[in-house]
Every structure is written in C-alpha cells, then in structure tokens.
Amino acid sequence: MRRNPFFSPARIAVIASHTFTHLVRMKVFYFLAVFAVLMVAASLFEMPYSRTTENTAEQELIILKSTAMGSMAMFSMIFAIASTALLIPKDLEDRTLYTILCKPVPRLDYLLGKLAGVLALVAVTLLLMDGLLSIILHLRTSGLIEEEMARGATQGWPQEALDLRKQEISQQGLTWSLQAGIGAVFFKAAIMAAIALLISTFSSSTLFTIIIAVVIYFIGHFTADARDYWLHQQDGAVSIQMKWVSQGISLIFPDFQLYNIIDAAIEGKTVTSSIFIRLLVLTCFYTGIYSVLSWFTFRKKEF
Fold first, then answer.
1. Which of 10, 54, 151, 164 has its CA 20 to 30 A from that of 268?
2. 98-140 pLDDT per residue, tens
3. Domains in the chain: how many in total?
4. What letter would DSSP give residue 48?
5. Is residue 3 part of a domain?
6. Whole-Å CA distances, 69 to 35, 198, 215
C-alpha cells in the first residue's frame, strides 16, 4: 500500500494554484486600477514649494517614490491580511474545506498551499505595481535630467558640474535599492499573511482576524522602541531571564523597524545585498514560525 507523504510540494502547489485563481475571481485586482490612477496623478503633481529649493528634481522624484511605495505597502498589507482572513471561512461556507480534508491531504499541506496562494497573489500584484512605477520613474528621471542639462548649458555650467548633477538626479531614479525596498514591502506582507493565517485557525470571525492582525502590524512598528526603552530603564541590571522574555516578545511581535530599508530606498540611499539577504532570512524565519503554530492549532480542529 502506497503511503501518503506528510509533506508534498506538488500537493501544496495545486492548493496554491486553486487559491490564487479563487482570489483573482474575487476581483481583488481592481485595486490595481486605483493604484495606477494614483501613480499617474503623483507623476503629474508638482509641489509648489519644491521650486524654491536647489534640489527640485530630486525632491520631485522622492515625492513620486514615496507616494508609490506608500501605496504598495498599504495595498499589499490589505491584500495579505484580508485575503488570508477570508480563506478558511470561505472554504467552510463553500464546503470546499470538507471536500479537501476528507481526502488524504495533510492539514499542513492545506495551510501552506493557502498561504502560498496568497503570497503569489501579493507577489504578482507588487510586480505589476513595480513595473508601472519603473516606467513612470524612468520617464520622469530622463525628463528631469534633460531639463537640468538644458538649464546648465544655458547658464554655462562646466562639464564636471553637468555630470555631477546628472549623477545626483539618477541616484533618485530607478536603482537596485528601490527594488530592494519593494522586496521589503513584500517581506512585511508575507509575515502579516502568516500571522493572519495563524489567527484564522482559532478565530471564528473574519473581522476579528483582520482587527487583531492590524493591531499586531502596528505593534510590530514599535516593538524595538519599547524593548530598548524598557532595557534602558533597568540601567544595565537586566537578568538573563528578562532578556529571554524580551526575545520571546520579539518573536511573538515581529520587529518591522528592521525593514526600514523602504525609507532608505525612497531617500535614494544605498541598500546592500547583504542587508536584503538578512531580511529575506528573517522573513523566512517569521513566516515559518507562524506557519508551524498555525498547523499546531489547526491539525486537530473539528469542523
């Protein structure tokens, strides 16, 4: 008799594909139209006060990137939390869950397939947004460089000054650091999807899952500050047990300040590949921990 494997990547891929298709049919991609309108409006919008500074071109590009990245972060978070919170209740309502679980499908495969489907949807959405941003940013950067070169030629700037000005504007354009920042947006969405999946395994309300996930998201942005303040208040007399408690809290509530390369990317600062890889490993760690906890609470749940 052939034994059913406990973990099957092929089975997870099938469930992920079904989840992705199911979410697309829910017309979540309509958010892309809103994002596209927002992006185009931002590229045409000109801040009046920016004309009073010397770095007009850089500020215009920073505003464009800030608007786009903010939209990406917001929509990816909405996708990740809302889509994941709807998965299990929707399967229960459609009775799809009973059909799947009555077959020899391990519940771990079911959960991982659902999470992979959501992450695939978020990834595709971000890729489309990234493509749109890259096109607009490239066109806007090229236009601003041409304007600056024409202004410099009119005012008789030396070639060194023209080259330096071109380099300064290009630094705020399409760079690897910007792509790393968008990758960090996806990492945060992946963690929040895993947290929403964990909550949905013991929650009977979709609204409760969404609210708690949003609260954890905001707590995650203040975890590092609260921990540093608390440890500082102890004047260095912190026992090893309290440090373990601190690390345990950090594990429950992910430290999203570690993903601040998004702000650095918007400001045109360099983000090294080593930092990006460390964030990737940290994201896999958080996602893995929450997925295991989800399976632990879901494996013997009665329906």
1. 151
2. 777 777 778 888 899 999 999 998 898 888 888 888 888 888 8
3. 1
4. G
5. no
6. 11, 27, 21
Contacts of 238 (CB under 8 A, 6+ apart): 231
Structural contact between residues 100 and 156, judged by C-beta atoms closer than 8 angstroms: no
Cα(83)–Cα(26) distance, rounded to whole angstroms?
A: 10
Lookup: tokens for 118? 């959501």
Query: Using DSSP, how many helices (H) and how many strands (E) does the chain show?
Result: 12, 0
| Domain range for 107 | 9-300
Nearest residue to 122 (alpha-carbon basis) of 217, 194, 213:
194
d(CA 279, CA 12): 25
Of the CA atoms within 13 Å of residue 30, those in its CB half-sphere come to 5
Residue 236 backbone zone (phi > 0: left; psi -120 to 50: alpha; other: beta): left
Place of tokens 């992920």: 16
**First-to-final CA distance of the chain:** 29
Question: Which residue ranges in the chain fall short of pLDDT 50?
Answer: 1, 49-52
Predicted TM-score (pTM) of the model is 0.84
Classify burial at 45, counting beta carbons within 10 Å of its beta carbon; exposed 0-12, middle 13-18, buried 19 or more: exposed
Looking at the domain assignment, is residue 213 inside a domain? yes
44 located within any domain: yes
Contact status, residue 74 vs residue 189, Cβ threshold 8 Å: no
In this predicted model, what pLDDT tens digit does every residue of 260-290 receive, in sequence order? Answer: 888 888 888 888 889 999 999 999 999 999 9
Residue 132: Cβ-neighbour burial (10 angstroms; 0-12, 13-18, 19+): middle
Question: Is 2 contained in some domain?
Answer: no
